[in-house]
Amino acid sequence: MLRWHAHHDVDLLREVVAVRPKSANDWNTIAANLHNAWGEEETQRSPIKGRSCKEHFGVLLAHHKAGNASALKKLQFTHTASDDVVAIELHRKKFIQCCSATEGARIQE
Asked: Is 54 helix (H, G, I), strand (E, B) or coil?
């Protein structure tokens, strides 16, 4: 099972905004995009699935709607070491590169 961290949440939310999922296939697309962006080292123990993305998004959305900022902080910022800041930035850059490559392929089609 994937352990969600702040950088995972940010990437998931960006994908949800980009894809606007309405069906299981859309959630599977989001999972595939995240898997490609994060690489094998993060997802090798348990591949990410569309259902996992949908359920985690539901948790984030429920806490947001309830105005439950403390729960969101617990979900997102369980690690505060400077290494995590570096990891988040590296993941963000890798995610942007992956999305740029994917977007370029879509444009050419």
From this structure: helix
